[in-house]
Amino acid sequence: MLRIFLISLFMLIFVKACVRMIPPDDVSISSTAATLPTEEPTEEPTEEPTTGATTEEAESTTAPAETMCDQCNIDDIAPTMLETGTDFVTQPRDPVDGCIRTYTTCGRTDSLVCDAAKMFATTPTGEQEVVDDTTGNAVYVTFTCANDGTYSWMGVTEISALRCQWIDCV
Predict the structure, then answer these.
(1) Residue that wins the pLDDT comparison between 125 and 61
(2) String of b and e for 77-112 (b: at least 16 CB within 10 Å)?
(3) Exposed, middle or buried, 137 (CB in 10 Å: 0-12/13-18/19+)?
């Protein structure tokens, strides 16, 4: 009987603690001032420098920034001349801010077991290893299409080709 009483007592304490953590509906964090000004703000005239062009002309000559991040094709950078018993697989992912994302896998399809699998990206500055996840027989990377229309991964940009490599396969 004492055991049931103690369990009930502890449960009641926990329930009260949980209830206290839920704020009432009329309580919220707000940045509204306690007293709002009743007068309309006055705007003092400012003198604008003259450039010879009106505001309308200046706005019409400014072209919106174009993005080509929806125009990448993973086949353009896919590895060529893969080893026998290997495969390069791609899967589209949901775009982020309209930019294409592609999940790629370089994997073995044969019975060989490897110590490591690596993927390299060729950029204007050379070849860099790219990897999100890896096993001995496969490497996985998600590439994002950049505003310039080329694929990128983390800080690796302007990728023009991919290469897969398997190390010490038996």
Answers:
(1) 125
(2) bbbeeeeeebebeeeeeeeeeebbbbebbbbbeeee
(3) buried
Q: Which of 30-34, 38-42, 157-161 has the lowest mean pLDDT?
A: 30-34
For the chain, state the CA radius of gyration: 30
The span from the CA of 87 to the CA of 82, in Å, is: 7
What's the CA gap between 20 and 44, in Å, rounded? 51
Say whether pTM exceeds 0.85.
no
Average pLDDT, the chain: 79
Q: Which amino acid is at 105?
A: T
**Segment holding 103, helix H or strand E:** strand 99-108
DSSP 75: G
Percentages of the chain per state (helix, strand, coil), in multiples of 5: 20, 35, 45
What string of DSSP letters covers 19-64?
HHHS--TT-------SS---SPPP----PPPP-SS-HHHHHHH-PP
Number of C-beta neighbours around residue 22 at 10 A: 7
Tokens 């897969």 sit on residue: 164
pLDDT surpasses 70 at 118: yes
Tokens 């705007």 sit at which residue? 43
Q: Is the C-alpha dihedral spanning 116, 140, 160, 78 positive or negative?
A: positive
